[in-house]
Amino acid sequence: MKKRPEFMRMIDSAKRGNIDLILVKSISRFARNTVDILNTIRELRNVGCIIYFEKENLYSDDSKIDFTLTILSSIAQEESRSISSNVKWAVEKKFKQGKVIIGRIYGYRFGENKTFIIHDEEAKVVRLIYSLFIQGYSIQDIKNILNTRGIVPASSKSKTWPYSTIRNILMNEKYCGDAILQKTVTLDYLTHKAVINDNIVNKYFVENNHEGIVSKEKWETAQYLLKGQSSSLTRMATKHSLTNLVYCSECGRNMHRHSINHNRPSVTTVLDCKHNPVIEKKCSTKWVSYDLVEKAIKDSIAELISRPELIESVTSLLAVNNDVDILQNEMATLREQIAKIQKAKTESVDSALVLKLENQENSLVERIKAKQKLVSSRVKTNTILDLISGLLTNKEMEIDGIIIKTLYRIVVSSNDTLTLVISNAPVTHEIALDIEKYVNIEPLFTKLFVDEESQRGIYIKVVFYDETI
């Protein structure tokens, strides 16, 4: 009854004394829940409102007919249960046939024959969400970026992106062209409340049901990162472009942004590892000008895209062993082996054999995790290649914090020298564990950058680190 606003408005009006008589076609049209029917009839009877059921030729003011009403309303309720069962049967039959029952989904519209049609503008936002997440941005980061850019979600109820909406987009397999059917199930036909289908009834998987907005490897990489995401991950979306990017070569700490000579004409914004509150270490590394470092990094990107031989060198390094399809096939084979082991475990009564099978299964799971890490690394590689392609296409593109953190996974500062690391590592914090090795890598190119405004210089070198070796 709560989902019938006009019905409830009529009942409220009757309780206020505005209605004396309600004419109803039949009991089943009044309500299908026995308790609801009896309670409502008694409440209205107490305020002097009579209900007449035409089909059954019954008036509710006769207290002797409560038994009759109970029987008839129970029949109406059973009819509702029967209809619900028939609908469930029809829906599951469609699921078994691989027919997708379409609901509203961001990034798609529905064409003839209930087909998925990509909505270009919304699809751009979906691709941006996946790209940012794979680069290492958290869901909260992505939420802030979308809201700051003024990108409005499809829901008219909110002008800002909820955290849950972005997470659901990252988890929804429909964005890679597949469909899992019967994710939820309605247990009570009276309340119609849907719950998550956690092995309650069968689920159905339809592969390549429609055109995906993102590739399957991007979607699977997002799932891998979602499972391994930790609350301790460093945020990448920050007000200032170098926050959580620059590390000290001597002590390995993240260099924080702060001001010196505060409230004086000579105030300067610098990066300094000594202001890192997490780890207290003595370090001889000097602070470095924030503006100088930022300008030097932007200049290095401009230098990179202006020299074809550098672009060719970087793309060739990134493209080595970048065949994601082979890894996907290898993982599919391992999953098939796991399925066979699980079947053998259920059929076996020998505890020693079951233990042996479990050990084999755990070993295969670890191999899948290792290959998934490689997939994540190579999808990250494709993200960098896409960025370089975009910079080459549009050389007037403004170089902002997102571009800097996409191309350079980490920047190592060592007394007037910056080492800028291009890497295929899936997440930044993994390559921040061993700072010293990046300083000794043979550089792709070196350059002395001089800031004309401040007349200060800094030596920069760009290196490539292959995380998969």
What this model shows, in words?
The protein starts with a helix and ends with a strand. Helix 5 crosses helix 8, helix 8 crosses helix 12 and helix 11 packs antiparallel against helix 12. Strands 10-14-15-17-16 form a five-stranded mixed beta sheet. A three-stranded mixed beta sheet has the order 1-2-3. Strands 11-12-13 form a three-stranded antiparallel beta sheet. It contains 15 helices and 17 strands. It is α+β, with helices and mostly antiparallel strands and 469 residues long.
Protein traits:
single chain, 469 residues, alpha+beta, Rossmann fold, Hect, E3 ligase catalytic domain fold, 3 domains, 5-stranded mixed sheet, 3-stranded mixed sheet, 15 helices, 17 strands
